[in-house]
Write a structure and sequence with these properties.
Length: 235
């Protein structure tokens, strides 16, 4: 295999992982709080997904740049400060240019700071890989998360209101199931999609186990932290 092909695969693998093999919503099932809370409509889901993706991409790049500078003993506080800075920028931009979306998402925008997807990728991937790879990982995970939220938001809005992006889809005779735009609807849709995944034997956190040897987030933070420390000692 030529060097050019190897280099291309090196950057494409993190992108594809985030979109398909390690999709944060449907495979790893991370970030369930915003997934369940803001997907009452497709527009809210898209706004939250893109906001999180921007923060994820920017924080991945910054943490990768500083990965050999940040001491192990303060790496998590440092990651949180970096992520919080980008979240603040995104929040101000939404408030200035899309005030209706900012109002709809409410507290869930600042809560991006502690989103386990962002902190998980910072700890498991960006802190031990190059800027280019971390950028592609951020793009893949960000788009994968956005697609996951959008899929759930579309289903909930369609069944609960008969619309998608506020455009009427269902015929006039359709009687919306309002429960799908309420809190229980999020669990109904997520559980239905998860059951479908398991039926089709697709990868998901409910039917496979993970380790983080390849940069995936297994949820075992102690093990992950130890791996990062060992990797940095080798550097």
């Amino acid at each position: 295999m030529s060097d050019n092909v190897k280099q291309k695969n090196k950057y494409m693998k993190p992108l594809i992982n985030g979109l398909i093999h390690e999709n944060p919503t449907f495979v790893l099932m991370l970030g369930m709080c915003p997934t369940l809370a803001v997907t009452t409509s497709a527009s809210n889901a898209l706004g939250m997904g893109l906001s999180t993706a921007l923060v994820l991409i920017a924080s991945n790049i910054m943490i990768s740049l500083l990965r050999k500078v940040i001491p192990d003993t303060v790496r998590m506080p440092a990651y949180i400060v970096i992520v919080a800075s980008f979240v603040t920028v995104v929040q101000f931009l939404l408030e200035a240019f899309v005030p209706s979306l900012h109002e709809s998402l409410g507290i869930y925008i600042p809560l991006i700071v502690v989103n386990c997807i962002i902190l998980g990728r910072a700890e498991a991937f960006a802190s031990r890989n190059s800027v280019g790879e971390s950028l592609m990982d951020g793009i893949g995970m960000g788009i994968g998360f956005t697609v996951g939220l959008l899929a759930i938001g579309i289903v909930r809005e369609l069944i609960g209101k008969g619309t998608i992006f506020d455009f009427t889809i269902m015929p006039d005779a359709y009687e919306p199931f309002n429960i799908f735009v309420l809190a229980p609807g999020a669990f109904f849709v997520l559980s239905g999609l998860t059951a479908l995944q398991n039926k089709l034997k697709l990868k998901s956190a409910t039917n496979v186990s993970y380790n983080n040897s390849d940069g995936s987030c297994s949820g075992d933070c102690a093990s992950c932290g130890a791996s990062v420390s060992e990797a940095k000692k080798e550097d």
